[in-house]
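Please check both lines for our workbook:

___
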Amino acid sequence: MRVALGILACLCVTGTVLGTDRASAQTPTLLWEAKGLAQPESVLHDPVTDVLYVSNINGAVMGKDGNGFISRIKPDGTILERSWATGLNSPTGMGLHERTLYVADVDRLVVLSAGSGSIEKTYKANGAIFLTTWSSPKTAPSLSPTRP
């Protein structure tokens, strides 16, 4: 599967959004392309290590098959570790707080070490059907469930 993450990664790393008025509109340019990923869903930049985390569903969306994983990629598109963190189901949104990586994984929040990728904790989101978005207010992480 060919995946064009270059533009998305560029937006995540720089926070730049192309102009909104017609006079300043630009045509996006593909900066790089990462190949070999498996249904990548989200990209998150780690400013401490200058690495991109990429969630890979690698199976049925919302499937609880244990095939999902997180990849680590350099900002130039070089894949450092394709299966850096494993044991996930259908990982989607991610957040980073104090060297801890939080991953929304169907109906649970998975807490990973940002250093090793090892799973430290999991929290079941009772009643959730499909967790997608992670945010980190100053007090505590929060998730946004999606319901069909």
Remarks:
- Residues 6-14 form the longest helix (9 residues).
- The longest strand covers residues 79-88.
- The chain has one domain: 2-146.
